[in-house]
Amino acid sequence: MNEPRHGRSARKPEKGNPDSFALEALPWPEVEAHLDRDPRLLFAVGALEQHGPHLPLGVNLLIAQRLVEEVSRERGVLRAPALAYGVDLPRHRGHRFAGTAGLRRKTLHRAVNELLADWEDHGVEELIVVTAHRYEPHLDALLMAVTAEARTTVVNLRSIPVGDILEGDPDTEHGGELETSLLLHLEPDRVRTEQIRDFVTDPATVRRYVRGRAPTPPPGSRGCLGRPSRATPEKGGRVFRRYVEILSREVLAAEANVARRSG
Hints:
There is one protein chain. This protein is an alpha/beta fold. It is 40% helix and 8% strand. It has a single domain (32-262), classed as Rossmann fold (3-Layer(aba) Sandwich), CATH 3.40.50.10310. The chain contains eight helices and four strands, in the order αβαβααβαβααα. It has a four-stranded parallel β-sheet, with helices on both faces. α2 links the parallel β1 and β2 (78-79). α2 (59-75) crosses α6 and α2 crosses α8 (233-262). The longest helix is centred in the last third of the chain and has 30 residues, at 233-262.
């Protein structure tokens, strides 16, 4: 095992301790020692936007963050504090729902690049970015991240097929069956079940809106599109387990990349 670069002794993380792999909870010598052994880092990026009157604004953050925490503990990989804000609809178009806030694409891109540069300087060789927000400018900002040598992988949870678990098509919903099921599984106390109302419109309209190509939500929508009434915690649990499986594969692939470079 390599000694920490500054010659300090450091404890190995304990897998049973939820804070053992969280950067913000560890002293720097322990982070340094861990990166000497394993230069991988998980990083969740969220968004703060409406998902209907029944779900919290931070749905995308909660899902990505809980997933990163789970895989970090299971695989023994360090995780960075999550970034709560992502790229959202321009203010004059989408921000009529109280509390919603977002960054411009170039702002998120610059912020991620600056964070990556620091982490790379400290020994990170494989960065795995996880997001549950599918707005295209948001994904572009993450996918265009620049590093000197470190490899960056972006895991877009909304691109993982889960249609076999759900009754409806998750690509034509927002705050619907998928996200409501996940929150019922992960954070049931945050779901205002008495406020659940379905809002069904044609799939093409939904796709234009969630991708940022429609100027406003469909008339009558309160931030939710689709059928959240179909949601169950059981569906959410099955979706989350699939997310864990897919992200774990990316983490293992990153480990193989490190091994190839070291060899």
